[in-house]
Design brief:
The chain is mainly α. It has 1 helix and no strands.
Length: 72
Amino acid sequence: MLKNLKISAKLFVAFAVVIVGLLALGVYGALSINTMATADQNMYNRNLLGISNVGSITENFFTVRVKVLKTV
């Protein structure tokens, strides 16, 4: 099929194949980044929001501890 084409047509076909491959790679990369961002948000919501509650509990504990020491 490509034997009968001129060199310019062969180059055009080669560049077209490369461009299509790069576009497919770009779309795959964009979808992967979107999936990774969603997974990251889910992990943050599941794991790190509880840590802020632990910080509040610790702060309250030390506040009560200081008040008890002042009272004693």
